[in-house]
Write a structure and sequence with these properties.
binds flavin-adenine dinucleotide, globular, single chain, disordered C terminus, 7-stranded mixed sheet, 606 residues, 8-stranded mixed sheet, alpha/beta
Length: 606
């Protein structure tokens, strides 16, 4: 048994004493010093725990010799939680105890949350990204409220049979906590029917392997329905209830929900909660515009999956997730941000109608800050083996491939960063690049060489191989035309990005040959009162350019709306009116010049 699990079998103990009342003598120095959770986090947690209502019992299971460092993490982490609030208690069990057998607990460590009321368990330490969902789950369990939206609650009320949900996660996957929370909320809403097991893949590779997990989050319901990626709440709930793909059923629900639903009205709707959209929100609100930000995923955009940012002024080095937290918190002080509310349609008129799958918003101006998405290779095997070894997110999936051979396709910054990340985590990456030289920034290319990462230059991937999981790739050498197979358990595709310009095309915005929205002065587009900012406009795809364009777009919207208002209702009412008269000085957008080839930060090709 681990040193931290030295109590007797089935020994039920409230671990440490509850925090001392204010008047009691100060605890001895030794007790003050042995905190595991850092001071700043303890302060946040203490404030968070004030909202707890009912006590939450945590049961920790562990076995000596299995994942010892994670057993220890869990033990110390939970011990600290019990010291921060008397609402949380803990009980420790051996993995071979009767209780573990009775509850079918087999992974070390495992934590059960409020097992007297719910069946929610974490197989693996609640560390990294999963620490967030773990704490949120404790909060919801204590309040006895799922926090699900009304449509999801209604759908879930129809459930009349048991559902066992497994959500596979990694500690570095920024999308995982939200998918975990989908499942946890369902378990809290329908405790008699829904059970949830969050499986950390690095500590439980055998379970991940058994379920064919090649990418996270990966959700399995009742051992039969496999769901890839993070899903909107309603879609998840529909699939949970029906054990079927939800698209068709949802569109009926959406239509019903939209019919007769009162739409919110704003000066400005901002689509996208990445750096560009969040900055636009801050600038819009500070200039007096009413605004709302809509995002189909959670706040942060591409920064959320960036391991470390080292070129954003003011931060020598900052994890992407932390920068997102700071940006999100800042923007929320000014405007509401609606997460998991993707915009599906826009109708331009005097008032612009913006449709999501939940509601319709009216606005006078619109900013598209929809970012860019990974380019696909477009070779056989890529679609079929997605989530089975084909990945576009090294940050999310690298953990699955420790000690394994993987390919990284591409030669720019993303490919180099991914290869270095994979190597650092213990995978054995080989870069496949179609040119003779890496196009990544010098310091990244130097690091690749220094780390001894193999690069197959002048080589393209023609096919990704594997029956049910990736087993390798068929590659072609450009010089000789020779084909060969390279063994690998995963292929990370990092060949650049394509603008998310579907909405722009729907609206009729002008785009260039690569689909980037064409920008005129002040981030204006060819349609009055519609602006674009950030990666969706192409050019230098970086956080600093995205935030600057977001600010400019918001100020242009402010200028144009103010001008329209001043021109009087007859002008304001006309959908034809130009937002910015040509003879008026307006804030200038940064140059949309193409990046010089040697400094291009965004990869354009393998
Ligand atoms: C792996 C990686 C590492 C990077 N490292 C760095 C770095 O070190 N330094 C740096 O400066 N830059 C880096 N970048 C680039 C940087 O992240 C982007 O330039 C920046 O995030 C662009 O911001 P954005 O707001 O334009 O778009 P995004 O951050 O992509 O945000 C766009 C948002 O729009 C949402 N959206 C899209 N369509 C819709 C719709 N129809 N409805 C609702 N919402 C929608 C998306 O969900 C997303 O949240 C990196 C990028 C990646 C992928």
């Amino acid at each position: 048994m681990s040193a931290l699990f030295k109590r007797g079998k089935d020994d039920t103990t409230k671990s440490a004493a509850a925090p001392a009342p204010a008047a009691s003598p100060a605890p001895p120095a030794s007790e003050l010093e042995d905190w595991f959770i850092p001071k700043e986090s303890r302060q946040h947690l203490t404030a968070y725990f004030k909202q707890l209502k009912s006590p939450v019992a945590l049961e920790i299971y562990a076995k000596d010799g299995v994942n010892d460092e994670y057993n220890e993490f869990t033990s110390k982490f939970v011990r600290d939680l019990t010291r921060l609030t008397d609402k949380i208690t803990e009980t420790r069990y051996d993995l071979d105890s009767d209780r573990a057998l009775e509850l079918g607990v087999s992974a070390s460590p495992t934590v059960l949350i409020a097992p007297d009321r719910y069946d929610i368990r974490y197989a693996g330490a609640p560390a990294g990204e999963e620490g967030r969902s773990f704490l949120e789950a404790i909060g919801l369990a204590s309040m006895g409220q799922s926090g699900l939206g009304e449509p999801a609650k209604k759908l879930l009320a129809e459930l009349d049979a048991p559902r066992a949900v497994k959500v596979f996660v990694s500690p570095t996957c920024p999308y995982c906590p939200a998918q975990v929370m989908n499942a946890v909320r369902a378990a809290i809403e329908r405790p008699k029917h829904v059970s949830v097991e969050v499986v950390e893949i690095y500590e439980n590779p055998d379970i991940a392997d058994r379920y064919g997990v090649g990418s996270v989050p990966h959700t399995v319901v009742n051992e039969e329905l496999h769901l890839m990626g993070l899903e909107p709440e309603e879609k998840f709930v529909v699939e949970l209830v029906t054990l079927k793909n939800a698209e068709e059923i949802l569109s009926r629900e959406r239509q019903a929900a939209l019919a007769g639903k009162a739409a919110g009205e704003f000066d400005l709707v901002i689509v996208g909660a990445g750096p560009a959209g969040l900055t636009a929100a801050i600038y819009a609100a500070r200039s007096g515009l009413s605004a709302v930000v809509l995002d189909r995923q959670n706040v942060g955009g591409a920064v959320a999956i960036t391991p470390n940012v080292e070129n954003y002024p003011g931060f020598v080095s900052v994890p992407g997730a932390k920068l997102v937290d700071i940006l999100g918190l800042h923007a929320r002080q000014y405007t509401p941000i609606h997460e998991f509310e993707g915009v599906t349609e826009v109708k331009i008129g005097r008032l612009i109608e913006v449709y999501t799958d939940k509601a319709m918003y009216l606005c006078r101006a619109l900013i598209l800050a929809t970012g860019a998405t990974w380019k696909k290779l477009g070779v056989p095997g890529e679609e079929r083996l997605f989530g089975r070894g084909v990945s576009y997110c090294a940050t999310c999936d690298a953990y699955l491939y420790r000690g394994k051979k993987v390919l990284v396709v591409g030669g720019g910054n993303t490919a180099a960063t991914d290869a270095l990340y994979l190597k650092n985590i213990g995978a054995v990456p080989t870069i496949v690049h179609r040119r003779g030289l890496l196009r990544a920034e010098r310091h990244l290319a130097d690091s690749v060489a220094r780390e001894g990462i193999e690069v197959l230059f002048n080589t393209t991937v023609a096919e990704i191989l594997g029956k049910t999981r990736v087993s390798g790739a068929r590659v072609i050498e450009a010089d000789s035309g020779a084909e060969r197979e390279v063994e690998a358990e995963a292929v990370f595709v990092a060949i650049g990005e394509l603008a998310n310009s579907e909405l722009a095309e729907l609206v009729g915005l002008a785009t260039d040959d690569e689909g980037n929205i064409r920008i005129e002065s002040g981030q204006r587009t060819n349609i009055p009162r519609v602006y674009a900012a950030g990666d969706v406009t192409g050019g230098i795809r970086q956080i600093v350019t995205a935030v600057s364009q977001g600010a400019v777009a918001a100020m242009s919207a402010f200028d144009d709306l103010t001008r329209l208002k001043a021109a009087g209702p007859h002008v304001e009412d006309s959908p034809e009116v130009e937002g910015a008269p040509e003879d008026t000085a307006l804030p200038e957008a940064p140059e949309q010049a193409a990046a010089p080839a040697e400094a291009a930060p965004a990869d354009k090709a393998q």
